């Protein structure tokens, strides 16, 4: 209903007074005082409008100016002209060679970032050693010599060339000697260059000097069979292997190759066929090979020869003159049993000795000849070229130099000022040499004594080739432009000898075109390109001939006895000098990855030490890490901390070489003590065993170990069986029946949230294949940008390795009480404390990394969901989300999570390792570096999985099994690690996990780990335990 | 509150003759309204130096990273979480006193609740600093809050740490509100006596308290409601703190007994801390008439009881470890008692289980010096308890290769000692600006539960002589009662 009422606001409206009518004509009833404000008092008010605007203007201007401070500008320059084949974000692989092994070099945006094995490689079938993995970092070493040097001053190449050529011309005229001193060269082209150089300068000689020498083997073969070579061993053909101090899985001749051969007879496939080789090791110090032996007995280093004589006696039934019993009665017993085993396996047996003594190696030859090893397990017709050093020739060079007969010396990959035992002698000798040129690109100890430094390329910057084994040729190609102003040594030699070919690349091409390509059935440009693609060629194989030994052994036996007596007489203790798989001869001492790689046996990083028998340590009243002074026969003394080593022969001390560098670089300088001076030259070869005297000091020098508890406490973390048990029951050692498991979650819900629609990434690790070498650790470091933290942090138990090798000892106590269900095995700490005899130790290596549990305990406790599960079964870390409560690490039963305690990538304390501007170039751009306060751990190389899936998707095909390999898996010569998709029943990993030997560590916790381990099987000799 | 006379056989809660409301106000406000004495200054200087150490240690940690602590790959928590749990536990007595005892009408709480609640708040502050400080990236601590965001990132409600964030923040806010509500009438008293700026400040802080009947009525109601809210917190907060361990897989942590055991331990350590503070405060501030031997003895009895509960829990843990048949669990406990950290375990056992049993002796629990010393011992023991649970469990768990030792750095020590300094700095400031005894609540007792009111009843002579005799005997233990006046009766 419409209202017709009228409301009025006031009487004025009702009355409609004239004033009201007048006012209501305008929009506003009352006038707005605009004029007043604009003209009158408005401007003279307390804060006038203009002042306000002025203040506002000034304020805004000031703030704007203040905000104009420069922010740091990070320049990233795009390719103006994109180089052919380089696509940002896509890796290129180039085949090359490392120490005779065919490798693949991964490059990103023009810089090599990782070395990977070439699956076709003859030596290690795609595996690589820790040293090879770490070699890429040396390319970016800050310590590398960046320019040529003359008399200590930086100079240019023309000046250096002029100096060397003038000097060489003068020497040539005077007829004095020129020596090229190198470690073993097995590159055909380099050897040809040296030969050409000698042609140009007829007084020149090539002296091969290996810091760790195999002259004993070469000489023995020369004496025995007229072939001065290191034979090519084939452990794969051996059913029984007896080693006397040869660390053939680690540092002896060709560790990676021998590992592939050795594991062939011990891995899952072999076990399935109920076949397993037996490995018996006699040695003084516990070597990595010793840790893998089925039977290992400690014998004094000086008794190696006597033990071999006893073996010979047992094999032949004769008695060599001077034969006597060993100090360790058990070892004597074992030798008789070993002889029985060896005879039974005639033609499939192999005896090796680590000694560099000609007599001992001659005796080994006699034994191998008896066993019919030549032609089966030993090949003298396609021998190894890996070591050709001749100690006598080297000694002669020093004598000549001291006599002033040598006027020029060139050092190629040789550093005798550090690794020759008599430093004073080499200094005296070099003082008499006028022209001393080193090709070393490291400012090493020898460089300091040289007049000229002509820095060589790193091998990743070089052209070249290699031939580690007769008939196997690999090619080396550069993967980056030289980082510094360096020049390849071969090119320098070509220039200095006025060779017709000036470029080494052309020289290599010519050499291959004329001599080598044909051996692989290749020819011409196409052949060369095919070679560069493939990386190697195999010449037609030469059948290994049989050889028989026909020398008289009486003289040999006499030498052995007298040498042994000499060592025993020289001091209370015998010092055995050995190499560790990480550091070897110390040439790579400046490599932080290798320094931080725990020793496979002692788990010590960043130091060498005096390994002593526990009985001796107790007898001398020493503590762990107490410093002792070791004094050699030649008066050389070093102070080293004691490490009580189970399995060390009593009366012996083992010290690793490769440490105590004084001029290695910021990383390697003064790490440990130099043990090379304990060498001595006897009967024409370097001897690694000598008598020493030992004195206690009161100092304690703690070592940085990554593992300090060596007993697995009888826990089912480790499961073992003997081969006899395995033959009866394939599931032997697996232990208890299935645990009853309870689940809090609704099953249907569980299935939905834990669905793995396509992939379920898992891993299988064969404890029987793993040798504990640690190559996987370095490979993982390189792949995943894992920081190096240095000795102090490792000592605080803060190493960052995503994968580690756990090493446990257990002891055999004959006739003693059982402790954990296994006859005579002692594993528990409290029993070990009561133990007297630490000789009979067995060792197991267990690679441990994130288990990617399906019921991951780390995931449930993270307050911010920084670690979560993927639909492919991976346990993932979102670094950006992590606030660093560390609860996940506490709750991880496997203790595989690593926390960034410091900002390792931007903290001056860690600059020497990986975070300086050079070494940072090695980082994998696919993996982020982690900031401080963030947790990290194994990601199952998720970047590799993603790359593999992407590639398959682009090619519109499913991802094939084995296409994606983990960095650790890839480098493992023993193939101990298999990764793959559990959803695919035909995948290698599914098959591996289906093995009866498979168990899961801490399975009873029901965390559902994604990594299955296979029981360790030992082919023990039951008679020994009776 | 009760307006009739209290039974004569109950011990008095306030001692002294001729105490008036004004006298209570005067005595309690003495430190608030006057210049501090020498004892306070000495305490304050020492405490501030401690607080400075805390600032230095925490700054060092933030600048260089958590690596400056002694933690490692195996032992990811040590002094940090030990300190956190220790402080949270200490806080519990305050809530128990203010809330649970209020609901149970335990009037003796009226003299000690103020200081105990203040202690709770400061202890929770100290604990909260550890939550932030132990993080690898403390500047991202807000990630732990369920804040809506465009990344659709959420927090993990399964994680005990997440529950902790809520438990501690709830606990802190409720305790603060409860404490402040109780303070209102007392602040008003200060306001009424103050002049100038002080008056303005206290006036604002008193929220306009008028003292009308309606105000008092509402005050009582709110107190009861807050007590009701706080009571579950006494149980829940430390239960949730115990979840940090109990919901994990770690042998030695994964234990269902943890919630009750932690709560008992918390009350145990909390009462010990109240003793530590009040025995000194009553002497220095001359509050002997309000905090009497009855209070001291009652608290000692609670310490004895909770200490015994904790002891039973320790033994039960051992039994269950054996009974479970789990080798890791068994090893964890044997390792505690006999492993490399045996000394920590036996320090805990002797401080927490054996020493409180001494309070069975009435003489000892009425001995002030002894009580004070034992309260310190108990808190040392409770620190070791958390250290034992955290470090000795972690340092040797499932995989023996990772077994490691924990060695603290000076920063670890600095953060902990510094947090004690921080705590005492706050406490000493508190007694300078706010009444350390709840005046209003104590005044409630003056007419009923005080010595003088009972004396008056005796003097009036309508009581059973036997009861009077009983009462007289109970007065002997008091150090603040003048027994001469009872001689004639």
UniProtKB/TrEMBL annotation, chain A:
It holds the Pfam family Fer4_7. InterPro entries: 4Fe4S_Fe-S-bd, Asp_de-COase-like_dom_sf, TAT_var_transloc_signal_dom. Residues 761-791, 873-902 form the 4Fe-4S ferredoxin-type domain. PANTHER family: GLUTAMATE SYNTHASE [NADPH] SMALL CHAIN (PTHR42783), GLUTAMATE SYNTHASE [NADPH] SMALL CHAIN-RELATED (PTHR42783:SF3). NCBIfam families: MoCo_extend_TAT. This is Molybdopterin oxidoreductase.
UniProtKB/TrEMBL annotation, chain B:
It comes from the Bacteria. It is a multi-pass membrane protein. The chain crosses the membrane at residues 39-64, 84-104, 116-140, 160-183, 222-241, 261-281, 302-323, 343-360, 372-393, 413-434. Keywords: Cell membrane, Membrane, Transmembrane, Transmembrane helix. One of its GO terms (cellular component) is plasma membrane. It is found in: Cell membrane. It holds the Pfam family NrfD. InterPro entries: NrfD-like. Belongs to the NrfD family. This is Hydrogenase. It comes from Mucilaginibacter pedocola.
């Amino acid at each position: 209903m419409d209202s017709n009422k009228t409301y009025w606001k006031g009487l004025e409206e009702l009355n409609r007074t004239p004033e009201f009518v007048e006012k209501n004509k305008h929009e506003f009833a009352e006038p707005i005082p605009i004029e007043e404000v604009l003209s009158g008092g408005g401007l003279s008010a307390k804060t006038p409008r203009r002042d306000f605007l002025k203040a506002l203007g000034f304020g805004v201007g000031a703030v704007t100016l203040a905000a104009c401070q420069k922010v740091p500008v990070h320049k990233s320059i795009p390719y103006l002209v994109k180089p052919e084949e380089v696509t940002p974000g896509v890796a290129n692989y180039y085949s090359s060679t490392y120490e005779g092994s065919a490798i693949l070099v991964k490059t990103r945006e023009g810089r090599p970032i990782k070395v990977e094995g070439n699956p076709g490689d003859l030596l290690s079938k795609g595996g690589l050693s820790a040293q090879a993995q770490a070699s890429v970092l040396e390319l970016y070493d800050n310590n590398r010599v960046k320019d040529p040097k003359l008399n200590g001053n930086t100079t240019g190449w023309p000046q250096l060339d002029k100096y060397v050529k003038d000097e060489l011309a003068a020497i040539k005229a005077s007829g004095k000697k020129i020596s090229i001193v190198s470690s073993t060269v097995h590159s055909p082209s380099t050897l040809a260059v040296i030969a050409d150089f000698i042609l140009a300068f007829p007084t020149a000689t090539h002296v091969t000097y290996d810091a760790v020498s195999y002259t004993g083997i070469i000489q023995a073969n020369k004496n025995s069979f007229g072939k001065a070579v290191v034979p090519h061993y084939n452990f794969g053909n051996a059913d029984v292997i007896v080693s006397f101090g040869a660390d053939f899985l680690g540092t002896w001749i060709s560790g990676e190759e021998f590992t592939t051969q050795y594991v062939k007879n011990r891995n899952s496939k072999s076990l399935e066929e109920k076949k397993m080789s037996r490995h018996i090791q006699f040695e003084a110090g516990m070597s990595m090979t010793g840790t893998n032996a089925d039977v290992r007995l400690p014998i004094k280093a000086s008794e190696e020869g006597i033990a071999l004589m006893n073996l010979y006696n047992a094999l032949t039934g004769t008695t060599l003159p001077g034969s006597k019993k060993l100090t360790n009665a058990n070892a004597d017993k074992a030798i008789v049993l070993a002889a029985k085993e060896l005879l039974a396996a005639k033609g499939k047996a192999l005896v090796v000795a680590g000694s560099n003594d000609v007599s001992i190696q001659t005796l080994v030859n006699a034994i191998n000849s008896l066993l019919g090893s030549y032609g089966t397990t030993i090949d003298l017709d396609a021998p190894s070229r890996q070591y050709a050093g001749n100690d006598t020739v080297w000694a002669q060079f020093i004598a000549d130099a001291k006599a002033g007969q040598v006027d020029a010396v060139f050092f190629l990959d040789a550093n005798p000022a550090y690794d020759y035992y008599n430093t004073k002698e080499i200094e005296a000798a070099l003082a008499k040499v006028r022209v001393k040129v080193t090709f070393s690109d490291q400012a090493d100890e020898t460089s300091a004594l040289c007049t000229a430094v002509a820095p060589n390329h790193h091998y990743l910057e070089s052209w070249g080739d290699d031939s580690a084994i007769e008939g196997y040729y690999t090619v080396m190609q550069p993967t980056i432009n030289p980082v510094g102003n360096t020049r390849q040594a071969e090119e320098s030699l070509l220039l200095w000898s006025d060779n017709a070919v000036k470029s080494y690349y052309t020289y290599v091409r010519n050499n291959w075109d004329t001599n080598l390509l044909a051996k692989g059935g290749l020819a011409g440009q196409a052949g060369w390109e095919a070679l560069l693609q493939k990386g190697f060629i195999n010449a037609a194989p030469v059948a290994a001939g049989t050889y028989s030994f026909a020398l008289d052994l009486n003289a040999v036996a006499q030498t052995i006895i007298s040498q042994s007596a000499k060592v025993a007489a020289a001091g209370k203790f015998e010092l055995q000098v050995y190499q560790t798989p990480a550091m070897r001869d110390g040439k790579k001492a400046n490599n932080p990855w290798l320094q931080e790689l725990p020793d496979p046996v002692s788990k010590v990083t960043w130091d060498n030490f005096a390994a002593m028998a526990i009985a001796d340590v107790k007898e001398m009243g020493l503590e762990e890490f107490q410093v002792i002074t070791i004094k050699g026969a030649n008066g050389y003394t070093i102070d080293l901390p004691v490490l009580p080593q189970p399995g060390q022969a009593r009366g012996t001390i083992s010290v690793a070489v490769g440490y105590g560098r004084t001029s290695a670089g910021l990383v390697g300088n003064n790490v440990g003590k130099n043990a090379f001076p304990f060498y001595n030259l006897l009967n024409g070869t370097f001897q690694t065993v000598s008598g020493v005297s030992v004195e206690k000091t009161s100092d304690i020098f703690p070592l940085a170990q990554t593992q300090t508890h060596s007993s697995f406490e009888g826990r089912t973390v480790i499961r073992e069986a003997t081969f006899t048990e395995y033959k009866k029951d394939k599931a032997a050692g697996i232990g208890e029946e299935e645990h009853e498991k309870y689940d809090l979650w609704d099953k249907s819900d569980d299935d939905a949230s834990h669905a793995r629609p396509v992939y379920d990434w898992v891993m299988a690790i064969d404890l029987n294949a793993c040798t504990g070498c640690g190559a996987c650790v370095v490979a993982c470091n390189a792949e995943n940008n894992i920081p190096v933290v240095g000795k102090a942090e490792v000592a605080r138990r803060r190493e960052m390795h995503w994968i580690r090798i756990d090493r446990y000892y257990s002891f055999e106590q004959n006739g003693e009480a059982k402790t954990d269900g296994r006859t005579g095995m002692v594993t528990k700490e409290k029993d070990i404390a009561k133990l007297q005899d630490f000789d009979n130790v067995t060792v197991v290596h267990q690679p441990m990394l994130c288990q990617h549990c399906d019921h991951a305990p780390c995931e449930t406790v993270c307050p911010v969901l920084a670690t979560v599960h993927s639909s492919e079964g991976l346990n993932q870390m979102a670094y950006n989300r992590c606030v660093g409560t560390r609860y996940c690490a506490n709750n991880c039963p496997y203790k595989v999570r690593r926390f960034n305690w410091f900002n390792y990538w931007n903290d001056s304390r860690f600059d020497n390792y990986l975070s300086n501007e050079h070494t940072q170039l090695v980082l994998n751009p696919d993996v982020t570096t982690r900031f401080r306060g963030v947790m990290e751990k194994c990601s199952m190389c998720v970047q590799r999985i993603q790359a593999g899936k992407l590639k398959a998707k682009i090619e519109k095909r499913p991802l094939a099994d084995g296409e994606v390999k983990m960095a650790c898996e890839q480098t493992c010569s023993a193939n101990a690690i298999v990764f793959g998709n559990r959803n695919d029943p035909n995948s290698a990993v599914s098959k591996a996990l289906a093995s009866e030997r498979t168990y899961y560590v801490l399975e009873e916790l029901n965390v559902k780990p994604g990594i299955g381990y296979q029981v360790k099987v030992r082919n023990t000799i039951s008679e020994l335990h009776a | 509150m009760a307006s009739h006379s209290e039974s004569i056989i109950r011990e008095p809660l306030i001692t002294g003759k001729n105490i008036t409301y004004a006298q209570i106000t005067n005595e309690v406000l003495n430190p608030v309204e006057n210049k501090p004495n020498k004892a306070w200054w000495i305490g304050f200087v020492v405490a501030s130096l401690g607080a400075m150490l805390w600032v230095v240690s925490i700054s060092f940690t933030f600048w260089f990273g958590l690596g400056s602590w002694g933690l490692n790959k195996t032992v990811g928590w040590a002094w940090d979480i030990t300190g956190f749990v220790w402080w949270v536990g200490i806080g519990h007595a305050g809530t128990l006193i203010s809330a649970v005892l209020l609901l149970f009408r335990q009037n003796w709480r009226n003299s000690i609740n103020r200081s105990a609640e203040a202690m709770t708040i400061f202890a929770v502050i100290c604990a909260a600093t550890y939550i932030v400080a132990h993080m690898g990236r403390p500047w991202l601590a807000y990630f732990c809050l369920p804040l809506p965001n465009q990344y659709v990132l959420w927090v993990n409600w399964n994680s005990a740490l997440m529950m902790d964030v809520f438990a501690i923040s709830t606990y802190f806010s409720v305790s603060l509100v409860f404490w402040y509500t109780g303070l209102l009438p007392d602040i008003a008293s200060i306001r009424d006596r103050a002049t100038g700026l002080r008056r303005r400040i206290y006036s604002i802080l008193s929220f306009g308290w008028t003292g009308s009947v309606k105000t008092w009525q509402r005050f009582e109601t709110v107190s009861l409601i807050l007590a009701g809210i706080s009571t579950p917190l006494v149980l829940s907060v430390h239960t949730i703190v115990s979840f940090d361990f109990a919901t994990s897989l770690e042998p030695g942590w994964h234990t269902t007994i943890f919630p009750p055991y932690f709560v008992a331990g918390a009350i145990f350590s909390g009462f010990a801390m109240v003793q530590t503070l009040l025995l000194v405060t009553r002497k220095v501030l001359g509050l002997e008439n309000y905090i009497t031997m009855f209070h001291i003895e009652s608290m000692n009895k609670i310490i004895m009881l909770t200490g015994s509960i904790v002891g039973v829990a320790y033994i039960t843990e051992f039994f269950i470890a054996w009974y479970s048949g789990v080798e890791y669990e068994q090893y964890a406990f044997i390792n505690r008692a006999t492993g490399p950290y045996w000394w920590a375990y036996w320090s805990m056992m002797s401080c927490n289980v054996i020493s409180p049993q001494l309070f069975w002796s009435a003489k000892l629990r009425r001995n002030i010096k002894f009580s004070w010393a034992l309260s310190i011992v108990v808190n040392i023991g409770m620190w070791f308890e958390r250290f034992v649970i955290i470090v000795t469990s972690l340092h040797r768990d499932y995989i023996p290769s990772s077994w490691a030792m924990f060695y603290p750095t000076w920063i670890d020590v600095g953060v902990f000692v510094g947090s004690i300094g921080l705590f005492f700095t706050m406490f000493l400031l508190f007694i300078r600006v706010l009444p350390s005894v709840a005046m209003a609540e104590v005044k409630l007792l003056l007419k009923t539960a005080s010595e003088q009111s009972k004396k008056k009843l005796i003097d009036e002579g309508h009581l059973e002589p036997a009861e009077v005799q009983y009462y007289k005997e109970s007065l002997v233990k008091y150090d603040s009662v003048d027994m001469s006046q009872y001689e004639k009766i």
